[in-house]
Amino acid sequence: MYGGDEVSAIVLDLGSHTCKAGYAGEDAPKAVFPSVVGSIEQTGAVDNERDSEATVDGKSGNRPFEAEKTKIRRKLYVGSQALGYRRDHMEVLSPIRDGVVLDWDIVDNIWDHAFRERLLIDPKEHPMLLAEPSSNTPQQREKAAELMFEKYQVPALFLAKNAVLTSFASGRATALVVDSGGGSTTVAAVHDGYVLQKAVATSPIGGEFLTDCLMKSLESKGITIKPRYSFKRKEIRTGEFQTVDLDFPNTTESYRLYSKRVIASDIKECVCRAPDAAYDDAGYANIPMTPYELPDGQTIEIGADRFKIPDVLFNPSLFQTIPGMENAIDSSLPLRGLPQMVIESINKCDADIRRELFSSILLAGGTASMQQLKERLEKDLIEEAPQAARVKVLASGNATERRFSVWIGGSILASLGSFQQMWFSKAEFEEHGASYIQRKCP
């Protein structure tokens, strides 16, 4: 149907941390940018005089008049460049929480940015393959289909589950996918190309949570991370710099946090690695320090935190020992480490495929590309799994492939000849409506 050489499908994977977009058949996404956006609220033209009056008596601009239905429009800034530029009163918003889209308006802007500014295409001319979370709700799928067909007028659409795409990327039809991304970690069993819904386990601990742990831990040791916009470096003599602090009183808290997170996340990726055995303070007390130079020129030394932070994935109760993180997650939720989630998920599957799942555990997602994570998970699972099981954790040696495995699976799937009759076409959408997607995309 769309298998011609002229038109290639577009593969879109909107994760909780980054959005990946590109052409089917290629080996890496063309565009990768944050899936958070900057938002500045602008009130309608009528309110400008009233706003300036409101500020005179010491109250903030548009707050007192919210009751009178002022028209508030948002200006959204999408993409790493737009976000890297500090603006007054710009809030940083994320459209996704726990894999569920809360704000479709932002998602619409992110898609638009991907098509028009990064890939430079007209969506009317390309079929779209969207990656979706393994536990996506029917309402979310129908909303995505409506937006794609009605606003972007795409000729055809397909929704594929993240876990299925990851298993395709590694060339398997049956696997247990451990997808540890920015917002959460999901373990899902895939059998013959279908996700077994009853065996999906999720945990709110993902890359962003680990970044927060690292930030709080450094702050408790008196290390301050200065966001890039808050200082200027001047060269006084060759090789010697002086840092001048800049003051921007109108910067929002969420933007300050976002800018600090970008730096903390880089520290995490550079120095952290999963410890070989469960972390304990005594064993890591005299570990050699690793230096890291912050953007403002100060060099910090990171010791036991390099191992403690990643170990939160295996032993979630560790985060409560970090000052400032005690109440970060609702304590009524049962928190399980990665090995427990894997075993729990496999035990919910039929007995006859458990053995196969144990021997093909796939690691995917940005957080999963951390050093030593694969070895540690394999070691823990061998200890906890039944004797008869042969445990094998598979992860691409290439960190890029691990990070983009969902996108790569989509790229493989959408370029297969045998897949071309599977598309949900615009004609079918017009005939049967959005609910037909449940039948077309299982």
From TrEMBL:
Localization, UniProt: Cytoplasm; Nucleus
Superkingdom of this protein's organism: Eukaryota
Source species: Aristolochia fimbriata (White veined hardy Dutchman's pipe vine)
GO cellular component, one term: cytoplasm
Keywords linked to the UniProt accession: Chromatin regulator, Cytoplasm, Developmental protein, Nucleus
Family: Belongs to the actin family. ARP4 subfamily.
Primary residence: cytoplasm
Keyword Nucleus on entry: yes
Region (Disordered): 44-64
Record-given protein name: Actin-related protein 4
Organism taxonomic ancestry: Eukaryota, Viridiplantae, Streptophyta, Embryophyta, Tracheophyta
CDD domains: ASKHA_NBD_Arp4_ACTL6-like
Xref: InterPro entries: Actin (IPR004000), ATPase_NBD (IPR043129)
BP terms from Gene Ontology: chromatin organization
